[in-house]
Amino acid sequence: MDPVTVRGTPFAMVLCTRPSKTKGIATRSEDGPITHQADITPHGFSDQPRARGTVHLSTKRTDVGTVLDRFRQTGSLKCLFPGRRGSALDAVVLNTAGGVTGGDQFDFSAQAAPGTTLTLTTQACERAYKAQPGEIGKITNRLRIDAGARINWLPQETILFNGSALHRRLKVDLSKGASLLMVEPVVFGRPAMGEDVTDLHFRDRIEIRREGVPLFIDAMALTGNARDHLAKPFIAGGAGAMALVVLIANNAETHLSPLQTTLPATGGVSLLQEDVLVMRLLAEDSFALRHTLLPLLQRLNGAPLPRCWKI
């Protein structure tokens, strides 16, 4: 008797050489056709794997300075703690999935206790790769800064590749007397590789509040041909990279005049309140952006940047 091949999924094969009474298996008698075929597709089966990751950490103050208090990590999002530099605590976030694509979800949260200083950065540039139709990658970051504490939020660039779909959100809650330095650099493709970002779905929202009162809220949405949109003279003038910098500190006002004299024509800085400084930068590419951004961040940080920024 000739064998009969039955395919329930791309990974399952059943060979029937004689009549079977097994429920759900495609069978045939010696003289009859196949009567029915089982549906053995695994429930929840997805054509593509999806990355998930969460990190939560908090700090406390001891005699040696800021140290880790609580820490939890799961999935593809990890955190490393390099050697101590002074009394502050440095943490390096890394995505072991190697990037973000449609359907991925990453959640990061950190709390700085009173009197502590926490510097957060990333091991390398985050990369948003081409997504499957209708699927979106999501990154959510939450920071809580208690009275007398400071967080330096210094991630490296996020590179948006052609066809990527990414929703990103940063929420910062400050207590009275808390300080924040944050930067969010974004790069659109890799022009050195001849890549044009003509198909993009990107939403980014930043919310900074103090005691529940909004200090700074910024939102950006780009859908479709980002290259042509950024080429418009009153949008980005053809820039392929940009960065937003916010400093909330008692000495923010002292940085205004020096920054105004050193910023290029594609940058601007404003003082929203006496302790809230906002700066925006446009650049041709990531190399030009870093050339301008690094010395400015080091000035605002008042200390050398994490080593990851210099590798």
From TrEMBL:
<keyword id="KW-0996">Nickel insertion</keyword>
<feature type="region of interest" description="Disordered">
    <location>
        <begin position="23"/>
        <end position="51"/>
    </location>
</feature>
<protein>
    <recommendedName>
        <fullName>Urease accessory protein UreD</fullName>
    </recommendedName>
</protein>
<comment type="function">
    <text>Required for maturation of urease via the functional incorporation of the urease nickel metallocenter.</text>
</comment>
<keyword id="KW-0143">Chaperone</keyword>
<dbReference type="GO" id="GO:0016151">
    <property type="term" value="F:nickel cation binding"/>
</dbReference>
<comment type="similarity">
    <text>Belongs to the UreD family.</text>
</comment>
<dbReference type="GO" id="GO:0005737">
    <property type="term" value="C:cytoplasm"/>
</dbReference>
<dbReference type="InterPro" id="IPR002669">
    <property type="entry name" value="UreD"/>
</dbReference>
<keyword id="KW-0963">Cytoplasm</keyword>
<dbReference type="Pfam" id="PF01774">
    <property type="entry name" value="UreD"/>
</dbReference>
<comment type="subunit">
    <text>UreD, UreF and UreG form a complex that acts as a GTP-hydrolysis-dependent molecular chaperone, activating the urease apoprotein by helping to assemble the nickel containing metallocenter of UreC. The UreE protein probably delivers the nickel.</text>
</comment>
